[in-house]
Amino acid sequence: MAELTLFSTMVCPMPFTLRKKLFHFLSENPIVAKVQYGLKITFIFVAVLFVDAVQRMVRIAQEGAAAKAKTDMADVRTETNYAARRFYAQRNLYLTGATLFLSLLLARVFYIVLDFIHVQENFTALQTKVARQSGASGEAEELRKRINELEAELKVNQGKDRDFDTLKKQASQQNAEYNRLADEHNKSTGAVSNKKAD
Questions:
Q1: Hey, what long-range contacts does 52-55 have (CB within 8 A, 24 or more apart)?
Q2: How far apart are the C-alpha atoms of 101 and 43, rounded to whole Å?
Q3: Which of 1, 45, 106, 120 has the fewest Cβ atoms within 10 angstroms?
Q4: Is residue 174 part of a domain?
Q5: Smallest Cα–Cα separation from 24: which of 35, 34, 37, 33?
Q6: CA distance 56 to 61
Q7: 156 domain residue, yes or no
Q8: What is the model's pLDDT at position 198?
Q9: How confident is the chain (198 residues) per 10-residue block, as mean pLDDT?
Q10: What gap in Å lies between CA 181 and CA 175, rounded to an integer?
């Protein structure tokens, strides 16, 4: 009954923090460790009783088969005694077998739930780490976008500066060509410019 109660407590739904505290207490408390050690020794004795119950069941089954093979008239007290012995042997077999099975089940479920708690804690820690990194990476991504925008603006401005420089060169070349053509025209027509030299 104690094993069933403990098993029901272990698998019943409860908040994660309560389950975590309970299982950390059960796995780290030195008093609980001593109790577990004592229970392991007890289960060794239960295993011996289980083997004994199996042997008694086999022996009683063989006696029953031998009694049925005899054609003598059976006594009611003998049959009642046989039925009682068989009942006690079956009861002992079922009790010790169920106790051993539940002890194995409890140990396995305990370690599975403990592993689940550790995995859940690691998962929560990784989630918070990723959340912090995604916040930082979100800022970094925003800064990268801003840098790309500024670089695009700079390229456009540099392109405008190049266009302006090209336009200035063209204007100065056209001015020089105009002056050359005007001088040639004046020479050929003999006209003199009214401009004063600077």
A1: 52/92, 53/89, 53/92, 53/93, 53/96, 53/97, 54/93
A2: 10
A3: 1
A4: no
A5: 33
A6: 8
A7: no
A8: 45
A9: 79 82 82 85 91 92 80 72 88 91 88 87 85 70 82 72 74 83 83 55
A10: 10
Question: Does residue 88 lie in a domain region?
Answer: yes
Give how many domains the chain has, as a whole number.
1
Q: Is residue 188 included in any domain, yes or no?
A: no
What pTM did the predictor assign? 0.53
Q: Do 100 and 47 form a contact (C-beta atoms < 8 A)? A: yes
Quick one: pLDDT at residue 183? 85
For residue 186, the tally of other CB atoms under 10 A from its CB is: 12
Which range of residues forms the domain containing residue 131? Answer: 2-136
Q: What is the pLDDT of residue 49?
A: 92
Residue appearing with tokens 């800022």:
139
Contact 106, 10 (CB under 8 A): yes
Structure tokens at 160: 């405008």
Q: Give whole-number Cα distances, 176 to 167, 169, 171, in Å.
A: 14, 10, 9
